[in-house]
Amino acid sequence: MPKPAPSPSNNRTLAISSQAKTLDLHGRHRDEVFRSAEGSLSNCLSETHLDRTVPGLKSIAKGKVRDVYEGKEHLVLVTTDRQSAFDRVLASIPFKGQVLNETSLWWFNKTVHITPNAVVCVPDKNVTIAKKCSVFPVEFVVRGFVTGSTDTSLWTVYSNGVRRYCGNLLPEGMVKIRSCLQIYSRLQLSQQIMMFQSLLTR
C-alpha cells in the first residue's frame, strides 16, 4: 500500500532555482546532498600551487582559507575548502570555498552602488581576479548574538568585565547567547548603518 503524501505544512523546502527540484530537507533529496558531499570528501581544494603552473603568477600570501597570487596588474584570490577555527586549519570541507567565494561576490554585487570594488572577473567558482588597490585598514565584524570563545569575542570581553566595547556601551546583566537586537534599539542600529555607509563612501 503506498504511503500517503506528506502534508505541505510538514515540509520545509528550499528552492534551489526555478528549474531545479525542490530540496526536501526531511526527505530523499537531503540524502542525495549528503551522498554528494561524502563523495566529494576526497576532492577538496586544500592546497593550491598556481605559481607552478601559470606563467607570470607569484604566490604572495597563504592565509587560513585563501591563497593569493600576484600577476602584472591583478591579484588572483583562490578560496580553498580549508576550514579554520580558533586560528587553526582544522580540516577541509567539500564546496566550502565555492560557497564562501560566491557569498563574497553576492555582497560585492549588492554594494557596488555604494562604493566600487576590486572584482574584475570570476573564472572559477573558487577564484576571484581582482584589481590591485590600497587596503582600507578597517574590518567590520557583525554578530547577531552575544557569544564567542576567542580573546576578542563579545562574550569573552564582557565576561571579563568590559562594558564599553568597540564604541558600544553594554548594559549590565547580559547573558551568553543573547540576541544583540535585544540590546540596541532600531534607532541605534540605523545610526550604526548610516555610519558604516558614510565610511564606505569617503
From TrEMBL:
Keyword line: ATP-binding, Ligase, Nucleotide-binding, Purine biosynthesis
Xref: InterPro entries: SAICAR_synt/ADE2_N, SAICAR_synthetase_CS
Molecular function, one GO term: phosphoribosylaminoimidazolesuccinocarboxamide synthase activity
GO biological process, one term: 'de novo' IMP biosynthetic process
Keyword ATP-binding included in the entry's annotation: yes
EC number assigned by the record: 6.3.2.6
Pathway as given in its UniProt record: Purine metabolism; IMP biosynthesis via de novo pathway; 5-amino-1-(5-phospho-D-ribosyl)imidazole-4-carboxamide from 5-amino-1-(5-phospho-D-ribosyl)imidazole-4-carboxylate: step 1/2
GO CC list: chloroplast stroma
Superkingdom assignment: Eukaryota
The UniProt record lists the keyword ATP-binding: yes
Domain SAICAR synthetase/ADE2 N-terminal: 60-154
Record field: catalytic activity: 5-amino-1-(5-phospho-D-ribosyl)imidazole-4-carboxylate + L-aspartate + ATP = (2S)-2-[5-amino-1-(5-phospho-beta-D-ribosyl)imidazole-4-carboxamido]succinate + ADP + phosphate + 2 H(+)
PANTHER family, A to Z: PHOSPHORIBOSYLAMINOIMIDAZOLE-SUCCINOCARBOXAMIDE SYNTHASE (PTHR43700:SF1)
Protein name as catalogued: phosphoribosylaminoimidazolesuccinocarboxamide synthase
Species of origin: Iris pallida
Organism placement in taxonomy: Eukaryota, Viridiplantae, Streptophyta, Embryophyta, Tracheophyta
